[in-house]
Amino acid sequence: MPKAPTELADEVREQVKDKKSYLGVIDRLNKASVDKHWEAYTDIPWDDPEFLVDKNDPRWVLPPFDRLGETAWYQSQPPEIKSQIGLWRVATAMKIGLQFENLLKRGLLNYAYRLPNGRPEFRYVYHETTEECHHGMMFQEFVNRTKMPIRGMPRALSLIAQAAPWIPLVSTEMFFIFVLGGEDPIDYVQRKSLKGGHIKHPLEETIMKIHIAEEARHISFARHYLKHRVPNMHPVRRRILGIATPVVLGVMARIMLSPPGPMVRHFNIPKDVVRAAYKNDAAQAEISNSVGKIRDLMAELGVVTPVNKQVWKAFGIWDEPKQRRAVEPAKAA
Questions:
Q1: Taking the CB of residue 9, how many other CB atoms lie within 10 A of it?
Q2: pTM of the model
Q3: Is 53 helix (H, G, I), strand (E, B) or coil?
Q4: What is the pLDDT of residues 153-163, one digit of tens each?
Q5: What is the H or E stretch that residue 270 is in?
Q6: Which of 17, 97, 165, 175 gives a 20 to 30 Å CA spacing to 105?
Q7: Which domains are seen in the chain, by residue range?
Q8: Which ranges of the sequence are coiled-coil (predicted)?
Q9: Which of 300, 177, 191 is nearest to 245 (CA)?
Q10: Phi, psi angle pair for 182, to nearest 5°
Q11: Burial of 202 (0-12, 13-18, 19+ CB in 10 A)
Q12: How many Å apart are CA 116 and CA 173, to the nearest integer?
């Protein structure tokens, strides 16, 4: 079973002071993808009896930090309903994850399509795309084994999201904000769940550890790309990026962390229970915390201004950055 990743913990906080250090990061990420990677149908023992997905398995019960799991309504449900709700939550997160990664892969390939010969980003993008393909396969295989009518993103949002793969043709910087907006909230929840010992089923644990390990590379590249490019953006484009960033993050974090509507309807969860669980200060703080690393990065890059700070606040995802460090401009590739 994959171990929790540690090798990139320092790298994601590394300063990119010049083009040489930026290229060095890409070389290390490319090497890491060759040295350690997983395949969906080779490295997960799907047919192991211990990995069987039973919707009534008590190991699916919502963890203590889940807001719905804390409610009196949830606690009063029969054990099998508690398990089914917990499994639905896990499966929905995976379905939304594979849908997001589908958009991500298409966007990455659009970005790579225009890269000149010899650019190291090309090889990295294809490593990431390959890894995301395996993530999508393992997520969908898990969803299939639940035998639940899991839908993922709301239909209207899914239609709007089809524009995402074309963002690199307009702004590669905005595209990698989109990438972090989808990856960071999921990474935040998964790491918190593993660290707290809340993952009880071995199949979920194995999938989650594989995902965290490889997403560490993907998050690292996106962060370093932004550190390399944003300091040299045209002031007008930087202002647009500064306003668009909290909008993208505010919407995406809620998609990743909010309860799925089909689950609420399927289990007849009362509206007042949903409001009590997810529309309070603690739930809002969780959403804000899930984008904390990106918020700190934007402040570090000098993108946050008194004007766009109001947009962060309007979406409920503002908190004072933990660090404010000047980034030396690097010559964009």
A1: 10
A2: 0.88
A3: coil
A4: 888 888 888 99
A5: none
A6: 17
A7: 16-315 (1.10.620.20)
A8: none
A9: 177
A10: -90, -35
A11: middle
A12: 18
